[in-house]
Design goal:
Elements (H helix, E strand, L loop, with lengths): L12 H31 L6 H25 L7 H18 L1 H26 L4 H23 L8 H21 L1
Helix pairs in contact: 1-2, 1-3, 1-4, 1-6, 2-5, 3-4, 4-5, 4-6
Catalytic activity: a 5-methoxy-2-methyl-3-(all-trans-polyprenyl)benzene-1,4-diol + AH2 + O2 = a 3-demethylubiquinol + A + H2O
Protein name: 3-demethoxyubiquinol 3-hydroxylase
Subcellular location: Cell membrane
Length: 183
């Protein structure tokens, strides 16, 4: 019997990879809901962007519910960091909204840029092997790209110190992805 090569996965590795994908995707959708909740808490329901933020939050909630169901069907546990993402997501949303509507939209644009990249990598890794998961990821990715485009059209790039703000949020998002896959 030969040992698996680095190019061939160990038995069970693909299932573990899919579990990590589901765990991080569910955590990301949950975090997005909390970010939008923080933004809406600051901006209120009378701001012109509030209706659009609420619409995006509703889509994120649908994504989260779908991943919750897939996790339950497949016996995948959520990240242990969920309580942290609950607070951190709301705080990020509120903090960026306090900087102004363009900063709130910069937050959305930055996060959705990372999620687009993240989902693209997941789709490449999955290939045709798990059509239920890849189908959900592809559908949700399209909506995340639309969120990014909406945020940019709403003035995300006009936020104070946009390149710095965007870069910091994107770094935080990549860190959250890495942590949620493992913990």
């Amino acid at each position: 019997m030969t040992a698996p090569t680095p190019a061939s996965p160990r038995p069970g590795q693909r299932g573990a990879d899919r579990a990590a994908m589901l765990r991080v995707d569910q955590a990301g959708e949950y975090g997005a809901i909390r970010i939008y909740a923080g933004q809406l808490a600051v901006l209120g329901d009378r701001h012109p962007m509030s209706r659009e933020i609420a619409r995006m939050a509703t889509q994120e909630e649908r994504h989260r519910q779908h991943f919750d169901a897939m996790m339950a069907q497949r016996g995948v546990r959520p990240t242990l960091l969920q309580p942290f993402w609950h607070v951190a997501g709301f705080a990020l949303g509120a903090a960026t909204a306090l900087l102004g509507p363009s900063a709130a939209m910069a937050c959305t644009a930055a996060i959705e840029t990372e999620i687009d990249d993240h989902y693209g990598k997941q789709l490449d890794a999955l290939g045709p092997e798990d059509p239920a998961l890849s189908g959900a990821i592809a559908e949700f990715r399209a909506e995340e790209v639309e969120h990014r485009e909406t945020a940019i059209a709403a003035g995300a790039e006009n936020a104070p110190a946009y390149p710095l703000l965007s870069g910091l949020i994107r770094l935080g998002c990549r860190t959250a992805i890495a942590l949620s896959q493992r913990i």
